[in-house]
Amino acid sequence: MKRQRLKQRALSLWLPDWPLQRVRLERPALKRCELSLYCQQHGALRLIASDRYAAGTPLAEVVRGKVEQHDPDADRETLLRLAAWCEQFSPIVGIEPPDCLHLDVTGLDLLYGSEEILVKKIAESFQRRGLGVRGAIADTVGIAWGVSHYASQPWSIVRSEALFRSLPIEALRVVDDVAVFSELGVTKINQLLAIPRTALASRFGSELIKRIRQAIGEIPEPIVSHRPPPKIQVETRCEYPVGDRCELQSILSGLIQRVAAELARRQQGALQVRCEFQSERGPLSFTASLFRPTSDSAHLLELVVMQLDRIAIVGPIDCVTMAVTSHAPLTTWQQELFEDSRREESRRVGLLVDRLSNRLGREAVVRSIPQQEAQPELAVRYEPLAGAVRSKSKRVFSKIVRPLHLEIQPRPIKALAVAPDGPPLQFHWHGDHVVRRACGPERIQTGWWRGRYVQRDYYRVETSVGKRFWLFRELRSGKWFLHGAYD
């Protein structure tokens, strides 16, 4: 029988006025007096938190209560100790500075009896420590964070998105754009979600869209434990300086065997491996990148040797260090009676990408990522195939026909049109072309917030000899450009 996967649940704990709470936690004598904390802001001493005064008040205006200097490093260290203490409630506890903790409580309702009992136990534990806290349990970290900060009740268990959608926009963890939304009369999350995402992306960028998708569960936002895993790093100090490449390869082979064993023990695969050589003439290093995570020592050694062949060793080596700088969980497959040709083809493609990336350079082997962008030359971005964890983002393809060949930058051409706003009748591009048919115009323009204002009328044209091009007229100057060609 197939085991049903538990639905993810996250608990967000917010400690209001955490700098003040932290000082009183360490110095109980200050609990009964008014307290203010200050720091240097914009060249002046101002309050960062206070029981009596507003944040940002100049220190010279404070006439009552105890005044202390704010220590952000102490705030973080105490928050980390509090996260370790919270491991009695959940095995995975992460921090979101400066004043928030996230607990993965998936399936813990079965252990405690219900989420209500778990929340009650946590609230009582914080109360015994003398800490004020607000919390919320939800399906995503984004919803839990927003409800814990902006809901009317100090503790909430969210079963649907209705409560979250009624909260102010600040609950999405976006700070820079709040003032702009307020001017537009958009103050609630449900109002924001009613706006098309394409319009939001073009005006406010990708960060706002990311927060929306994280909150509603379209892209994952895992809780990263505050205890980072031990670093995978091995080292060999040579008894005598080594300058022969064959000896270096032997040393690297031994180090890779140790790295591969540790990766296999953790069920992790390397995505980037960094090697560093120490010599009298200074350090020398290189990085091998992979398309898919692997703990195969033979494959790792092949890529490391490729990188070794690309560098010049200027002196004898005293010490060799190898570290895994990026890794991801290994993908395991069930053994099959008959070999899957598609899986074998995928494995070979991965090996090819690894070899090309390490032979030519990581930035030379890339993939294209379509973007929701009206301006054609910005509709695609490129990222290296090797050395990074690839997210399964939703591909965005335009339903409008676009040329397969697109110029990196539009090419200026000379064109003749009868009507000022009409299609071209002929143009010159590596020879004269007479237009037999034209389709358009398709107007593309960007908003004022993009800086350089773009206003273009595009035409798909077919010449008398059957060639098809993508041309546009720049509306402000009236000049013509060739942007692409159809096969």
UniProtKB/TrEMBL annotation:
<protein>
    <recommendedName>
        <fullName>DNA polymerase Y-family little finger domain-containing protein</fullName>
    </recommendedName>
</protein>
<dbReference type="GO" id="GO:0003684">
    <property type="term" value="F:damaged DNA binding"/>
</dbReference>
<dbReference type="InterPro" id="IPR043502">
    <property type="entry name" value="DNA/RNA_pol_sf"/>
</dbReference>
<dbReference type="GO" id="GO:0006281">
    <property type="term" value="P:DNA repair"/>
</dbReference>
<feature type="domain" description="DNA polymerase Y-family little finger">
    <location>
        <begin position="231"/>
        <end position="312"/>
    </location>
</feature>
<dbReference type="Pfam" id="PF11799">
    <property type="entry name" value="IMS_C"/>
</dbReference>
<keyword id="KW-0227">DNA damage</keyword>
<dbReference type="InterPro" id="IPR050356">
    <property type="entry name" value="SulA_CellDiv_inhibitor"/>
</dbReference>
<dbReference type="InterPro" id="IPR017961">
    <property type="entry name" value="DNA_pol_Y-fam_little_finger"/>
</dbReference>
